[in-house]
Amino acid sequence: MDRPSREVLRRMPLAEGVLLLWRWATSEERLEGLWNRTRGRCYEKIISFSLMVHLIADALLHYEGSGRRSFQKNIESGELEATLAAAYGKLGRLPIPLSQEFLRECTAALRGAFPVWAEWELPRSIRGLRVIILDGKAIKRVAKRLKRLRGIPGGLLGGRALVAIDWSTGLAVAMHADADGDANDVRFVPTLVPVVRQEVSGPRLWLADRAFCDLSQPAHFTAERGDHFLVRYHPKVKFYADSTRPERRGKTEKGLDYVEQWGWLGGERDKRRRYVRRIQLVRPGNEDVILVTDLLDADVYPAEDLLWLYSERWGIEQVFQKVTEVFGLQRLIGGTPQACIFQFAFCLLLYNMIQVVRGYIAEGQDREPEEISLENLFDDVERQLTAWNVMFEPQATVNYFQCLPDDPAALQARLRALLGSAWSETWVKSPHQEHHGKTPRKRTRSHNSVYRILHPHWRRERRRMSKAP
Asked: pTM for this structure?
């Protein structure tokens, strides 16, 4: 079919909406600019960066995460004029800064299309702050396709990334990645925080787990005036209570007791010492939750609101789970850290895109976004995209989306018209089930870093090539 008919389009609103967002976020001009700025020593000969993005999209959306099938189908259709080895090699050499900027810039385009109606609302006391959640993610289950990886016991790590999530929209706005899967992601904070500040206007509240509780990170979090932090306390940093300020006690809505104290993190001789407020939630039968923050005024920022906000940090773990199980990170296409990190950035972008689609559907149905299941919605998106791919030639799709909206407001109006009336009862999320405890494991799984296995080999190869005549 050369051109989609109205009847066909009426039956595939999800496919049209996703393709419209995809063309908007990954336009040829944007991808070309990304490549020129961050390609490093890489070059384009036959396989361009935009073509590689198209190949990975086909693999994740149409071929169940199989890069081989995607490459073969595109070779058959004439889109890819290279061998399988060349395609895998190109994917395995993509620079890590390119993957980071790919996520940042494409997500910035999606944020302009995100419906304001679907943004989550904070408690009144902290409504003036933009909450940014930070957490690290190790990319696991690398396939042992490379010769140097065969026969190595245990699992393999294909890299590690520190990701920043905007709580109000649920979008992953930026990440900083490293090829070493065993790297400590806390040391990425000084690099990632300035990038997030460029994307999300302040003032901001940085929310992180106990791994980020030390005497160095608060300086990065509060480097810009108006920014604050809320992190879980770690006993590796000593807390010295202020004897001149009495502690306060209270109860949460669930009847749990909490204690508030003021004092210093770090000893008197440490120049990084900082005056903080410490909130301890007593949980009988479980580990206490202890938070530290520079929001010192307990009347302006009640402890109940801060304890509730920290419980929302679990949302970033759910993001990682969905990116892995729903959006294709569970089946890694490449075997090098560079390929794994690019696929991770790609899966995060897919997650962001479906978040935008869910926002418009929730607005049209007057529902809360979290009432709609991302898994079930993405299943129907994949089904409609597959049907679209079968019915229309690639050039017909390109021609149909040739004229994109002029600005984000026009894009929002078109998405609202497309997705506002789309609905299926199968998208309703199942009711929450009580947690029944951890499932016991018979053995612990060990992991090795692909980077640490391949890096000595790469150094030997460079040394050998430098000595060759």
From this structure: 0.92
